Amino acid sequence: MIFTGAKGAPLRSGNFGRAVKWTKTVASVGLAGFYFHDLRHTGNTLAASAGASTRELMHRMGHATMRAALIYQHATSERDREIAAAIDHRIATRARRARSGQA
What we know:
single chain, mainly alpha, 2 domains, 6 helices, about 60% helix
């Protein structure tokens, strides 16, 4: 458990921000306007970019439909480069095999 109240119990969503002084805390580290939900979005976006499938994202987030999980699967230029490199590698491997008669 990361966030607990004064008595060590888990915090409820209704008193979380006040109990941890969220607004003041994020402003003090230069992240004014950063919301707690942004942590969930960031974590799941990172999971998606690391290769988590839609089903895996659904499980992590507790969603029953693919629609919500797809929100986190942003296309990024970094991921585009990784996909292009993987495709290039596969083509080069097949071409080498074909030239050597192993196709």
